[in-house]
Write the structure tokens for this entry.
Amino acid sequence: MSASQGPTLRELAVQALSSVEHGYDLLAPKFDHTPYRTPEPVLGAVARVLGALGPFGRGLDLCCGTGAGLPVLRAVCRERITGVDFSTGMLTVGRARAPGAADWVRADARALPFAPAAFDLAVSFGAFGHFLPGERPGLFAQVRSVLAPGGRFAFPIAAPARPGSSGYWSLLAFDTAMRVRNAVWRPRFVMYYRDFALTDVVRELADAGFRVELYALDELGRRPDGSPRCRLVVATAV
């Protein structure tokens, strides 16, 4: 990624004071030159695990953005793949860069416009901080409703930063800044990644009708205690 091609500080400030949807519409032309795009090592590690579990039929990238995760679906799915996002700007950029590679659908992930059992695999990368904890059960139920029996819902989740580490303080500072911003400014911009805890997520997926398995993404390293820095959550529709 090239910092010179990414957004300026002024552009980031304007985006941060917008709604989530409009902020991403504004960011879309430069999104792939920001740290927010899912890194290739993460995509490759996820593709490795899913490749061993597949192949799959129809694939869905939930909150696809400009389509960074769609190559993962293309590698493991035999049939048509679809990206869904609520940002028109992000979809426009993705469609222009990969015309005909997928179906691009504008929709809110909390109200998916697909038929029951429309997909065999759903993936998502880095989107869950945009959903409040109280919204996740409904979101997971939506994903379950569009998966065929035995279909998989997969997404990576990083281990929490150790208390007192630089990563811990950086994440806490970002979370605090977002909460202050949303207390004094409208529209809100929801991005609270500290709320996405693995224990809660596994329980909510089970409540939505999934059987959950965890896979270590060893390519991304291990912590000093030997635990993986990142796991892939694979939830199977039962």
About this structure: The beta strands are 59-62, 81-85, 103-106, 119-124, 147-158, 210-216, 230-237. The first helix runs from residue 9 to 16.
